[in-house]
C-alpha cells in the first residue's frame, strides 16, 4: 500500500532583457510560530570564502522523550494500540539499549512496530523527525506542573485532588474519594480500557518506561480491571533533558535576483567584482578542490598560465555565488528538469532534492545541460494542458496527494502529515478488505460523505419561489457561464461570479414573525450587491381550509406576493414585500394594513378584497409551503437553508448571517472545484440536480438518527476465530474480536437462512442490524422484538444478536440467551424466528423464570431433540465472549 504524491512543476523561461550581471541571493521566509513556541534563530556565517548559512528553530521547553511522542502517535491511531504499546514499554529504560539517542530511537521503533503496519511505521518515523507530538507531551508536563508533584516523587497519583506517590496510601484515598469533587478531564487524557466510569478517578503522572511507572501501572491496572477505579494516565518527566527541541516546518527560499540596475556591456566586463578576490593571484586560499596551487607553481613555474586557467575554472565551478548572464537563464528550468530525468529512476527524487536545496551552487553546471527536443515538447504540452485544466501559469506549482489538491499557500508540513496519515488509513483499510489495484483507484474517486458533515434537505420542491436565477436572468449575462472558471486562479477570498446556481439560499419563514423583516433584508442585500446566490422563499402560514387574508397578515402577504409575481415577476414581487416591511416600525410585527397600503398604492385599480379575501385566486403554495416545512423536519421557524443545509439558530442574526453565508460560499467553492477537476460536474449538467444527488441530502432531517455521535466497528480484519473458544477470543485485539464475532454470527432474515439452510449469496441484504442487549432482561427483549417486527416490512434486512449480560453468566440467568443461540444453530430460519419471537413476549419470559420447560414454547416444525441438546450444553463460552466484546 502506498500513498501517491504528485507535484506539478510548471516550468517557465526567464525573459530576455538588458544584459545585466545577475547574482543569486538567499531570502528567508518564515511563518510565525504560535502557542507555546519560542523562536531562536542562529545564523552561523562562516568565513567569507564559505558563504554557508545555517538556521535552526528551538522551542522554549526542554526536549521530550521520543518514547512518549511515539505513544501519542499510537494514541491517535487507537486507544487499544496505545495501551498495548505502554505494556510493551513498561521497562523500557532498563531494556537492552546502550543509552545513545540512536539506540533509544531504534528501540522505540521496534516496540511500536508490534502495533503498526509498515506504512504506519514510516509515518511514525516522519512524525518523530518533525517532533510533531513534542508539544502534546509538553502539554501534559505543564498540567503536571500545575498540580505540582510531591517532593522526591518521580511519579505520583492524584485521587480527586489528593496527591501521593506512596502505593500504600492509594486504597485510603480511593475510599474517601466520593467526599471530594471529581477532577476535570481533558480530551487527550488516556483512559485505561475497561475502566469503570462511575468509579473514583485515579490520575497517574509518570514517564512511561521508568521503573516507578512499571510498579504503579501494574497496581492501577489490577484495580481498573476489578472495577474499583477509573484509571487515567498523563505523561510526566521528573528530570527532563536540558536540550531544546529543534523544530521543522520552516523553509528557506533561494531566489535569483538582479542586484544592479545600470546597463553594462558584457564584452567590457572581464569578470565579476564579486569573484575578483577569489580568482586573482593574490587570493590567500591556496587549496582549490584538493589542488595546492602554491606548491604547483613552485614545482612547475613554466606552467604558470595553464595553472592560472585551471585554478580559475575550478573556482568558478565551485563558487556558490557565481554570476550568470541573462541568456544563461532562459532555459535553466528546462535544463534542471532534464538533469533530474537523466538520473536513474531510484535516484531521481534525491537528485531533485539536491538541486532544489542547493540550486545556486548547481546553477552554473546546470546551464551546460543539453535539453532533448522530446523533453522540451513534452513540457510545453504539459504547460498547455495544466493551464487549461487547472489554471496553472508558467512557473506555478501544484501538489496532489491521491488526487487531493493541496493548497501550497495555506498548508504546512504538519498539515501534509495529517493528509498523508488519513490517506494511509483509507488505503490500508481498503487493502485489508481485498480492494486493490484499479478497484482501489475507483473507490478512492468516490465522494464519500463524511460522518460529521451537515445534512441537507431537497430544495427542488415547486413550493419554493425563486427570486432570481443566475443561469437565465439577463442581469447576469456579463458573467462567464463555464464551470471551468472555477479552476482559474484568483486572489484568496474572492467570490467567483459565474452564471451557475452553485449557491442556493432559501428562507422558510412566517411573514408575521418579528425576525422576518431582518432576514428578508439580508436576502435583498445579497441580490442588490450581485452576490452569486440564488434566493428562494417559502412562506409558512396558516394551512386551514378557509383563511381570510384580511384578518391574517401572513396569509395577506403570501397572497399579495403571488398576485404581483403573476402580474410581473418574482423579483418585483420580492421588492414589493420589502416595501411592505419598510412600513413596519422597529420592534413591531407585520400587519394587514401594511400589506393593503402598498397594494393600493401600486395597484389602485384592483380591489384588494379579491386578492386577500377568503375566495382569493392567489392562494398558491399556502398549504404546500406548510407541508414542505413539516416534511423536512428542520425545526422551529425561521429557517435558512444553504444548498439545503439548515443553518444554526445562532447564525441567523442579520450581521452573523451575512458573514456565515459568505463563508459558506467560499467553502463550497472548493467542493465544486474538486467536482469539476475530477470530471464529476460539467457544463451540460444541472448544478442543482448535482447538489441534490449528493449522499448528505435526505428527505427529512431526523435529529435522533442523523445528529447523534456515531461510532464504527472496524470490520477490516480477517481471521478464523470464533466466539465459542473464549480462552482464545479473550486474547484478541478489538479488530480481531470483531472479525470473530462476524465469523460466528448467524442472521435472521425475512426469507433467509439459518445454519441449516443453504444461503443464497446472490441476494445481498444491504442493511445489517447487530442487536446488543441482555435478552434475559425486559429492555433487551423489547429491543430485539422491535427489530424482528421491523424486519417483517423489509427483505433487505438481516439481524444478528450479541449478548451483553448485566450479571456474570450462569445457567440460571441466561435461559433466553442460550435458547436464542440454540435455535439459531439448530433450526431453520423461519422456525428460529417464530420461536425467538415467542420467547421475547413478557408473559412467556416470566413463565420461563418460574420454571416452565423451554420445550413448551416450541413452534411447529422445530427439531426439538436437536434444540434441547444444544440448549442444555454446559458451554457458555459464546456468552462470555460476547460480554468481553461489549465491555
Automatic annotation (TrEMBL):
One of its GO terms (molecular function) is UDP-glucose:glycoprotein glucosyltransferase activity. InterPro entries: UDP-g_GGtrans, UGGT_TRXL_1, UGGT_TRXL_2, UGGT_TRXL_3, UGGT_TRXL_4. GO terms for biological process: ERAD pathway; protein N-linked glycosylation via asparagine. Pfam families: Thioredoxin_12, Thioredoxin_13, Thioredoxin_14, Thioredoxin_15. Residues 729-887 form the UDP-glucose:glycoprotein glucosyltransferase thioredoxin-like domain. GO terms for cellular component: endoplasmic reticulum. It comes from the Eukaryota. Residues 63-244, 318-449, 457-705 form the UGGT thioredoxin-like domain. This is UGGT thioredoxin-like domain-containing protein. The lineage of its organism: Eukaryota, Metazoa, Chordata, Craniata, Vertebrata.
